[in-house]
Design a protein that fits this description.
Blueprint lengths: L1 E2 H7 L5 H9 L3 E3 L2 E2 L6 E2 L5 E3 L2 E2 L7 E6 L28 E2 L8 E7 L2 H8 L7 E8 L4 H9 L2 E2 L2 E2 L4 E8 L4 E8 L6 H8 L4 E9 L2 E2 L8 E3 L2 H12 L2
Parallel strand pairs: 9-15
Antiparallel strand pairs: 1-4, 2-3, 2-5, 5-6, 7-9, 7-17, 8-9, 10-14, 10-15, 11-12, 13-14, 15-16
Helix pairs in contact: 1-2
Length: about 240
């Protein structure tokens, strides 16, 4: 289910704020009944009218995108920097990213117009694993690996247990390539976890999201998810 004002905004009726004004002033009906409260949740099957005119609701679409470095995980940017939706110029639906990757982080990012699924995937209780590969300063020692694996304090809250694999080390350049798998999605979490053990991240890439990978894609490319992938994602998000 989604909030009514969000559905109106996605349908192109008005901005989210203007949609709230339309609801509050009695211009909107759901299944023939006038709705004036902001908390109204609607399903895809509900019939919505604005001043007696039925609104067109977009068919849900789902994309897997290989986000390049130097791109914002948003639909717009006040500094006029490149955003992820710039790579989808011919997609008529109002898509948006599920979660975010930092400006300088590359890798797998999902985009959709399915607000219900996006909320499920981003909810903390739905433990979908995400695997990152990081180039870090220095080399992890066993006690540091154990800290990361057991959970480490970040901003007065301990992270959930992680999986850590050392891929390679370079003693001459004093850096390492490390694979880290987590199921949380806190802000800058991977960078903060490595910073907490005194190994700043130099490069970061998200390689997997649950069962999804970047196979066959290069930075800036995307593909549409097939129905069984969407179904599996939804099942994974709801089973926790």
């Amino acid at each position: 289910m989604e909030r009514l004002q969000k559905v109106l905004a996605h349908a192109g009726i008005a901005s989210r704020r203007k949609a709230e004004e339309l609801i509050a002033t009695g211009h909107v009906k759901v299944n023939g009944k006038k709705v004036t409260e902001m908390g109204c949740q609607v399903e895809h099957s509900d019939q919505i009218e604005v001043d007696g005119v039925p609104i067109y609701r977009e068919e849900p679409v789902y994309f897997l995108f290989y986000k390049p470095r130097g791109v914002i995980s948003a639909v717009s940017d006040d500094k006029d920097r490149k955003v992820v939706t710039d790579f989808f110029p011919h997609i008529k639906q109002r898509i948006y990213p599920v979660g975010r990757l930092d400006y300088d982080t590359t890798g797998l990012l999902l985009l959709t117009n399915d607000g219900e699924l996006a909320q499920l995937l981003m909810h903390p209780k739905h433990q979908i694993e995400k695997t990152y590969v990081a180039k870090i300063k220095g080399m992890l020692i066993p006690p540091e690996i154990r800290k990361l694996e057991r959970g480490i304090m970040i901003e007065d809250r301990k992270t959930a247990p992680a999986k850590v694999t050392i891929i390679s080390t370079d003693r001459v350049k004093d850096n390492s390539i490390v694979q880290l798998t987590i199921h949380e999605g806190r802000n800058h979490q991977v960078k903060k976890m490595f910073q907490a053990v005194q190994h700043p991240v130099q490069k970061l890439k998200r390689e997997t999201y649950g069962f999804l990978t970047l196979q066959g894609l290069t930075p800036g490319e995307w593909r549409e998810l097939v129905p069984h992938e969407v179904k599996k994602l939804r099942h994974m998000a709801m089973e926790k």
